[in-house]
Amino acid sequence: MPIDSSNAYIATAGAWFQIKPALRDNAEEGKTNFINVINGTSYAAVWSNNFGYARDGWYKDNKGYSALVIPAGATIGVKEAVTENGVTTYNTTLHLIPQLEYERIPGTQTLNNYTLEFMLKSGYPSGYENPIFSIANNDLGLYVYPTELVLKNSANQQASVIFKENSVTHVVITWQRNYASNSDGNHHLCTIYINGVNNASFQYSGNATWGYGTLEMGQQDTDTYLYMIRAYNTALEHIAVKNNYLNAMIDGAEVSRIEAAQKNAIVDGNSISYDLVKAAGFNTMVVEMLGTAVLPDFNHQSGGLSNVRFEYADHPSWNTSITYAPIDGQGTTSKQYYRWNLRWKLTKYDAAKGTEDSIWHYADGY
């Protein structure tokens, strides 16, 4: 009998690091160590004194799903050197955000590309000012607050995205060096995905560093739940990110894997398919660039002439289109991102300027 493995939701192969709380137990020897399940490497960690190891630590969240539970007021830090009872243990270096242009992980080549993935939840926070999860040093690196993720580098670049409290959130951050080149030189791209969806993409300077910090978790006023961490010495593409999200997510807790897979099955090859988007029931905005013009972004800054169409899945009578609509980017800061905020400035016919009338069409005119 043929086996249907289409719903197996297998994670992308090749991770060099992974933490799985489902494989840990508070009764095991060395329970405070973090273990990389890929190769068995153990990293000593400092756990604060306010763990009871009954309903916290390597336990379950409030819905019964395996997690590292860090109650409000407790902290965990994975340090390079840990001293306990007068004995100092020196860790194998664990830097989950490495210096991307240098070799930092034993046995690997120079790290031009990198991916960090983790899934967590903030439980009933009463304070939002301090991070519940961080990989940072000297105010550089990754800071995750109860409802916000902030990423900072040494070039004074900062990106942030918002997510929900009391909700399991899957995060993937990718760094891709030399993703494009133009007259300004090589460009490097950082992308932040939340629950499988690209929430921010921005270019960063080649000599930027990200703190090279160590992992810290827990906060005074918030219960923190960690479900997994995974890292790759490559920059995952969006298809791989979606697959990892489906692999990691807790089926039935807040979302359905099958529904999420169907809703996100909109990519054909490496491109978003209009037909698949329509089949999934999304509202769509379709931009058709005219002549030799290219959709404006960081690498194509000249703009051009376009037709734009707005289609409503449940209300086709609302559909609207505009023909001969000049398009360019909007906002000085947003133009530093790889993908731009777009804007249209509608025009009237002017023979001297070579412009045409921008014309609105409504559903009955299609």
Q: What name does the CATH topology of the largest domain carry?
A: Jelly Rolls
Written as H for each helix and E for each strand, in order along the chain, the element string is EEEEEEEEEEEEEEEEEEEHHEEHEEEEE
The first-level CATH class name of the largest domain? Mainly Beta
**Relative strand content:** 35-45%
Number of helical stretches of at least 4 residues: 3
**Helicity, in percent?**
under 10%
Which regions contain 5 or more consecutive residues with pLDDT less than 50? 1-6, 101-109
The 3D shape can be described as elongated
Indicate the multimeric state. Answer: single chain
Distance between the termini: 49 Å
Class computed from helices, strands and strand pairing: mainly beta
Write a brief caption for the model.
Helices cover 7% and strands 38% of the residues. The protein has three helices and 26 strands. Residues 1-6 and 101-109 have low confidence and may be disordered.
Describe this structure in words.
It contains 3 helices and 26 strands. With 366 residues, the protein is mainly β. It folds into 2 domains: 234 residues, Jelly Rolls; 83 residues, no CATH class.
Main attributes of the structure:
mainly beta, 366 residues, disordered N terminus, 8-stranded antiparallel β-sheet, Jelly Rolls, 2 domains, 3 helices, elongated, 7-stranded antiparallel β-sheet
